[in-house]
Write a structure and sequence with these properties.
single chain, mainly alpha, about 90% helix, elongated
Length: about 160
């Protein structure tokens, strides 16, 4: 082969590969934009995750309060046991019932903590799935504005409907 022919083939190959690469890049860029429907879905999903997260935070705070109350209750029982009249069967029965009640309260607090932890783990999994689904999408500014207006309008209608 002549040098001119080799040079021509190399240049043609480069041009064709550059054109194909540009077409692929253009298609990838065009495909990277999410649709308005995807934006609506991802925003609703985000709202749902935020609501669930707030619920878990509230449950965690309530659980912490239960544990604090149980610690205070346990301290009262220790003091009560020190002053317990061991000859009074009614006082002993009352104390024993208070201990049974306390143990139930502790069990309930542990169950609530376990439930909250499970909900938190499920939420983390769902957040990861939402990130996988929505995290790589980019939206056009016009779509964002339009969907934001739709959501504000829907929120105003819902607020008006729920007002007495």
């Amino acid at each position: 082969m002549t040098t001119l022919r080799i040079t021509f083939l190399v240049l043609a190959g480069l041009l064709l590969s550059d054109t194909a690469g540009a077409a692929t890049a253009k298609a990838a860029t065009a495909g990277a934009f999410g649709t308005r429907e995807q934006l609506r879905e991802c925003m609703a999903l985000d709202d749902s995750l935020k609501l669930r997260s707030a619920g878990i935070e509230a449950a965690t705070a309530a659980s912490n309060q239960k544990f604090d109350a149980n610690e205070a209750e346990a301290a009262r029982l220790v003091d009560m046991k020190k002053n317990l009249d061991r000859t009074d069967k009614t006082a002993i029965a009352t104390f024993n019932q208070l201990v049974v009640d306390h143990n139930l309260h502790v069990q309930q607090a542990h169950q609530a903590e376990s439930d909250t932890e499970m909900a938190s783990n499920i939420l983390a999994t769902d957040k990861a799935a939402a990130d996988q689904k929505c995290g790589g999408l980019t939206y056009r500014p016009g779509d964002i504005d339009a969907v934001s207006k739709e959501r504000k309008k829907a929120a105003a209608v819902a607020a008006a409907a729920s007002a007495p």
